[in-house]
Amino acid sequence: MPTIYEACVTSIAQAIAAERAGADRLELCTRISTGGLTPPVPRLVAVRDAVAIPIHVMIRPRAGDFSYSRAEVDRMRRAIGDAREAEADGVVLGLLTADGRVDARAFRALAPITRGLSITCHRAFDELSAPLESMEELIELGVDRILTSGGAPTARKGADLLARLVAAARGRIGIIACGRIRARHAAELVAATGVSEIHAHLKSTASMRALARAVHAGTP
User: Fold this and answer.
1) Which pLDDT score is estimated for 217?
2) pTM of this prediction?
3) Measured in whole angstroms, how far is the alpha carbon of residue 199 from the centre of its chain?
4) Residues 104-123: pLDDT tens digits?
5) Structural domain range at position 169
6) CA 166 to CA 212: how far, in whole Å?
7) Which end of the chain has fewer CB atoms < 10 Å from its terminal CB, N or C?
8) Alpha helices in the chain (DSSP H)
9) Which residues of the chain have pLDDT under 70?
10) Is 103 within 8 Å of 97 (Cβ atoms)?
11) Closest Cα to residue 164, out of 127, 133, 119?
């Protein structure tokens, strides 16, 4: 299977540029400096109208930790409904308990509204103390993929855990590598870890195009 390049974008212009550069899918968010928050609905609608490739929407109501109150989970539920209505293809979220485990109860509370959408667990995963066991929980909860840098500041530094996750997943859940991935080392990272998806937030069209070519060609 070809490796997928998911471009993280925050604006209509970035979304159009990413599609033209060869991205296979978009993650749409806002406030990237905080790790990403839910984008405004009008922006999602405009991006959906502007591009043909799949769009996965960040569902994160605030910056900070990933342990959410019932009121915040309700806000997430409404945001997922908005994403569905705007014809998004998937949602990106992460819910942890106060002691840093997968919040299965919150995931299940959102299950009815996420049904039919592709679900990605974002980098909240990197805060879990038992990633392999937590991956099994996410599989049981119906999550389709995990966005992770292997618990390290960059994907290259987290390559060992990325490879272990891919091996343990055995195709039951996708592993998306993220964390300062650039064209010059993308092919090496894919070969070393076996990941089938790469995620990056790049500001220039040239950088997006270079990464797309490296990912799709399998060479840096």
Assistant:
1) 86
2) 0.96
3) 7
4) 999 999 999 999 999 999 99
5) 4-217
6) 21
7) N
8) 12-21, 41-50, 70-85, 104-114, 131-140, 159-169, 183-193, 205-217
9) 219-220
10) yes
11) 133
